[in-house]
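Let's practice the habit of predicting before peeking. Look at the sequence and jot down your guess about where helices and strands might fall. Then scroll down.
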Amino acid sequence: MKVLFGEGEGRRMSGEDAGAPPVRTRRRGAALERAIYEATIAECAESGYGRLTLRGVAERARTGKAALYRRWSTPQDLLLDAFEHVLLPSEELPETGDLREELVAALRRMADALTGRTGPPAMVLLGDLLRHPELIAVFRTRFIEPRLEAIAEILRRAAERGEIPGESASPFAARTGPAQVMMHYLLNGTPPDDRAIEAMVDQVVLPALRAGRRVPGDT
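Done guessing? Here is the structure:
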């Protein structure tokens, strides 16, 4: 486990950072760590993965570079930790006993998470990061898989209630709604609103589920 750190009061950046404004350094431990992670995500989103620097993160987080160098030797190491800590896992969805209502709620939560309404905007990170398997692995484990599993559980419950055929409660079926949300964002540059999410569920997801056709290779 990595040790949390603290900062002294009233230090300035030295050397190449001479002339920078005074850095406020009252934060310590988890508060400072969180500020650094959030600054890393924001800096990557604004500047791009290839131009991410520890100096840029330090300036955005209003801390000294020494606080970063004590834990991370490269910006890429820092981004891996930031990516893992700041991407929140999905919250448990309430059970309502109604398939449509639960699907709409799940896709609304996903849209909010992708675009930053409930945390850092996950979608803005994907452009540069698609070429870096280690970052995609974190994104898949922390963001995608928990949300797909939540939808798969919704489908399993609906199948048990008889709302959809049993073969519709499959991993491929669980991806249908999230794929619609992500495609909407990629095509429009904005998250789907409630009306669009309801249309996705009513016009695409529910008809596919009720058809009950198994996709070859789906397990």
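How did you do? Residues 1-24 have pLDDT under 50 and may be disordered.
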